[in-house]
Amino acid sequence: MLTGIKTLFKMKKLPKITIGILNYNGLDYLRKTIPPLFSLNYPDYEILLVDNGSKDESLKYLSKLNNIRIIKNKNNLGYCVGKNQIVRNAKGIYVLLLDEDILVTDKSCLLKFLSFHESKKCGFICPVLVNKGERATSMYGGFWGPFAYGTRPTVKVSNIIKRDYIEVVGVEGGAIFFKKNHFLNIGLYDETQPYYLDVGDINIRSYILTGKKNYSLYNLCFIHLGVQRKVDTKKWAWKLQYMFPGAMRILWKNFTLKNALLFSPTIFLFYFCGSLYQTVKRRSFLVIKSFIWSFLFFLKSFPDTIKERGKIQGKRVIKSDLFLKIKRPSF
C-alpha cells in the first residue's frame, strides 16, 4: 500500500475515476446511496448512472440532481449489458462499479482503491460488503474449493478488518474497482445471460489471460442495503434460472478440460440439492421449476459456450488453473 501512496505523490495529476451505478427500480436505495458520493475526498471523478428501464420514479429523482451523467435504457437490458454500458461510456481511466443498493461509507475510498491498485498492478479490487444492521458478513471475496465452490461462512466484521487485504478468486460484484482498459481488453461481462455472468466469470478470465491477481480490501467496508431482495421468493427463483447455467458457462469457458469435467457433476449436485432445499424452505414449487428451466437453458447454450471456450483457451497466459490454490483465510 505504501508503494501505491508513493506513486500517487509522484503523479502530477491524479487520474480521473468514474463511479458507475446500475439502477433498476431502485429509488428507495438511490435516495440513500447517491448523496454520499458527492462528498468524496478525490479531486477528479464523475458519477455515471445507467437506468435499466425503471418503472418507479428513479429518473424523476435523478433529474433534480446535478453532476450526474445518466444513460436511459427503454427496457431492462440485464445486469451485464447495463454494467458494460457504464464501462464503455466511462470517461475515467479507472472505474468504481456499484450496484444501486451499495452505500459508500468511506470518503477516502477512491484514494485507497487507487493507491492499492498502483502498488499491486492487479486486475480487480473490492471492499468488504456488509448487510445493513449486521455485524458479520460472508461477502469478503469468492473462493473455489477442491470440488467446485468453496464455502464462505459468516464472519464477524471485527475479525475481518484485522487484515489489510487478501488475494481472492472473485471480488464482490456489488462494488468493484478496476482500470477501464483492462476490463475492455479481456472482453467485458458476458452478455448471454441477464444475470450471474459478471465477476465470477471475468475475474477468472482476467487471471488466466493476463496473470493479474484480484484482491479484497479488508480495511474498507461498504453497506449493502438490498437485503430484502434475497428473501423475496419470486425474485430469488428468477435469479436461480441463471445460476446453474452461469456457473457451468464459467466453468467450461475458463477452466482446463480436466477440471471442467471434474467439477461439472458437483456443480450440478450443488444447485440441484440447493433447489430442493429451497423448495421445501420457501414452500414453493416455483424454485424447482426454475432449476429445471435452468438445466434446459444450459443444454441449449452449451454449443455457444464451447465456441467461447475455444477463443479464451487459445489466449491463456496462465496455462493451469492456479487460482484454485487461493485459499479462504482463517479468521
From TrEMBL:
Q: Which Pfam family, an example, fits this chain?
A: Glycos_transf_2
Task: Quote the InterPro entries the UniProt record gives.
Answer: Glyco_trans_2-like, Nucleotide-diphossugar_trans
* Swiss-Prot/TrEMBL keywords: Glycosyltransferase, Transferase
UniProt-listed Gene3D superfamilies: Spore Coat Polysaccharide Biosynthesis Protein SpsA, Chain A
Q: Name one GO molecular function term.
A: glycosyltransferase activity
| SUPFAM superfamilies in alphabetical order | Nucleotide-diphospho-sugar transferases
User: Is Glycosyltransferase set as a keyword in this record?
Assistant: yes
Q: Which residues form the Glycosyltransferase 2-like domain?
A: 19-139
- Domain of life of the organism encoding this protein: Bacteria
Return the similarity comment.
Answer: Belongs to the glycosyltransferase 2 family.
The name of this protein is Glycosyltransferase 2-like domain-containing protein
